[in-house]
Amino acid sequence: MDWIDRLEEEAWNVVIDELVWHLREDRLPISIHWQLSPARGIEFRFKDSAPAFFALKEHALEEHVLEEHWDEAVQIIARFPQLQTMDVRSGA
Predict the structure, then answer these.
(1) How far apart are CA 67 and CA 73, in angstroms?
(2) Which of 14, 44, 59, 90 qualifies as a cystine partner to 29, CB 3.0-4.6 A?
(3) DSSP code of 55?
(4) CA gap 46, 52 in Å, rounded
């Protein structure tokens, strides 16, 4: 899909890269959540399948880097009408 290609080209961003991977697998998340506990990372939730968790620790990223990527990803996602039904939030 052209819009997924445009999304992928928006930035080098680990959150967007992970989102694009799920979209190419025909898995549109219903929510993406910056999770602070019990583990730090990004949780992708789907309507018809188990959640996927992008763990900070497993990807050897410093927390401030993932936070920067998260903030940038929220802005990028907001520019794509195809993703407007997705709940994007930060929290514990």
Answers:
(1) 10
(2) 44
(3) E
(4) 8
Structure tokens at 65: 């880097």
Q: Please name the residues in contact with 36: beta carbons below 8 A apart, sequence gap of 6 or more.
A: 91, 92
Q: Pairing state of beta strands 87-91 and 31-35? A: parallel
Q: What is the DSSP letter of 60?
A: T
Contacts of 29 (CB under 8 A, 6+ apart): 19, 22, 44, 45, 46, 86
| CA dihedral of residues 67, 69, 72, 73 (deg, nearest 10) | -110
pLDDT 10s digits, 40-82: 788 899 988 888 887 666 555 677 777 888 899 999 999 999 9
